[in-house]
Write a structure and sequence with these properties.
The protein has one helix at about 65-75, and strands spanning about 1-10, 15-20, 30, 40, 45-50, 55-60. It contains one helix and six strands, in the order E-E-E-E-E-E-H. The strands form two sheets. The chain has a four-stranded antiparallel β-sheet with strand order 1-2-5-6, covered by helices on one side. A hairpin with a 2-residue loop joins strand 5 and strand 6.
Length: about 80
């Protein structure tokens, strides 16, 4: 879901979209950007797309609470 107004994370960084998805063929495991947990790419998880300084990064979260806490922390 593309945000109607990008959310500022301070400086020149903005969250432009948040999505829920999974790749059933992808057996990778990554770190959750919001906690010490893990994200399994073949299970449902949240992804935030951050843009700034000409770069685009994707961060994976294990659940909505982790994403919300990360957004609140990053926006302060």
């Amino acid at each position: 879901m593309r945000l109607p107004v990008p959310r500022s994370l301070g400086g020149r960084f903005y969250v432009k979209e948040v999505s829920v998805g999974r790749d059933p063929e992808d057996g990778r495991v990554g770190d959750c950007a919001g906690c010490d947990g893990y994200v399994y790419h073949d299970r449902w998880h949240l992804t935030a797309t951050v843009v700034g300084d000409g770069r685009r990064s994707r961060y994976h979260y294990c659940d909505g609470d982790c994403l919300g806490e990360w957004l609140a922390f990053a926006a302060d």
